[in-house]
């Protein structure tokens, strides 16, 4: 731009900082751009500094990011939630929960109201550390601290509870969400299904209840349900679900069933399911081919496996 006689503005420079810091990890070049801006009377703004901090944090250079934060404060540039959230995330990923909580206190002491996204990052870190009581406290104090939990907040908490084996409490959060006017989404449903995958009646009940409550299941949701039923030996139930008019099956869900049939050595049943896939107009993929071939070969039906591959190669 400069070579063509066009002077870059602050927005263009900030984009360049983002490219160098966040994509190319060329931090020396990013600092040069920031220095050029200051030398040419174009003071870097909060977006410029926040972009640089985000890149540094993603590269694990948290101490350096804190130095940039100090610099922007010295320059009289006020940070915002987007400035602090990458630092919070870096702390939580590294298991530095104490530092993350101190950062939150620093933000509030300086008069900044942390955003819901910032709290969600902290909640994910607390869940990873098993500090569920602290998560409860954050949620209880949300109104007083002027932030509103969203679907991501609760889904993150549910995920942590389910991974810790506290499935019942995660279920109770669904009603709490609904009472607060939040609608659980397919991610919420998938998290809960993963949590109850060892109890097939609970899987079916949860699936039906969530659909009644307005959640829109996606293909991954159905695959989880099929996998859960198959894992518990309820293959007929999985097949009935796949054939249900309310279930728009895809190749991933069918592959899940075929994989379990193959594992059990049921080549004939796997071929019947494969025939059903083709009859429904669903195109088998490479994974389907591999699963069916493996199943047939395990039972010594090499010629049948070769015929299937020859047939499939025609399309």
UniProtKB/TrEMBL annotation:
Coiled coil: none annotated. Keywords: Repeat, Transit peptide. This is Pentacotripeptide-repeat region of PRORP domain-containing protein. InterPro entries: PPR_P_subfamily, PPR_rpt, TPR-like_helical_dom_sf. Belongs to the PPR family. P subfamily. PANTHER family: MITOCHONDRIAL GROUP I INTRON SPLICING FACTOR CCM1 (PTHR46128), PENTACOTRIPEPTIDE-REPEAT REGION OF PRORP DOMAIN-CONTAINING PROTEIN (PTHR46128:SF211). PPR repeats lie at residues 9-44, 45-79, 80-114, 115-149, 150-184, 250-284. It holds the Pfam family PPR_1.
């Amino acid at each position: 731009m400069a070579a063509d006689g066009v002077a870059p503005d602050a927005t263009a420079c900030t984009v360049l900082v983002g490219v160098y810091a966040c994509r190319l990890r060329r931090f020396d070049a990013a600092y040069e751009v920031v220095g050029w801006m200051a030398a040419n009377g174009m003071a870097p703004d909060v977006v410029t500094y926040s972009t640089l901090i985000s890149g540094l944090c993603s590269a694990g250079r948290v101490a350096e990011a804190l130095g940039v934060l100090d610099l922007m404060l010295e320059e009289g540039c006020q940070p915002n939630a987007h400035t602090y959230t990458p630092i919070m995330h870096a702390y939580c990923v590294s298991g530095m929960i104490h530092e993350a909580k101190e950062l939150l206190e620093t933000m509030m002491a300086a008069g900044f109201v942390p955003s819901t996204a910032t709290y969600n990052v902290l909640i994910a870190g607390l869940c990873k550390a098993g500090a569920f009581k602290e998560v409860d406290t954050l949620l209880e104090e949300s109104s007083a601290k002027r932030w509103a939990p969203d679907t991501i907040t609760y889904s993150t908490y549910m995920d942590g509870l389910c991974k810790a084996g506290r499935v019942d409490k995660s279920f109770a959060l669904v009603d709490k969400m609904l009472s607060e006017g939040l609608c659980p989404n397919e991610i919420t449903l998938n998290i809960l299904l993963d949590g109850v995958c060892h109890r097939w009646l609970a899987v079916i009940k949860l699936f039906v209840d969530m659909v009644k409550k307005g959640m829109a299941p996606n293909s991954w949701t159905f695959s989880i349900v099929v996998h859960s039923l198959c894992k518990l030996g309820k293959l007929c139930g999985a097949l009935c679900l796949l054939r249900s008019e309310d279930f728009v099956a895809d190749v991933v869900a069918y592959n899940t069933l075929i994989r379990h049939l193959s594992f059990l050595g049921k080549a004939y049943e796997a071929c019947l399911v494969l025939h059903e896939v083709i009859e429904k107009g669903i195109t088998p993929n490479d994974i389907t081919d591999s699963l069916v071939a493996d199943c047939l070969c395990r039972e010594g039906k090499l010629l049948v496996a070769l015929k299937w591959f020859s047939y499939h190669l025609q399309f």
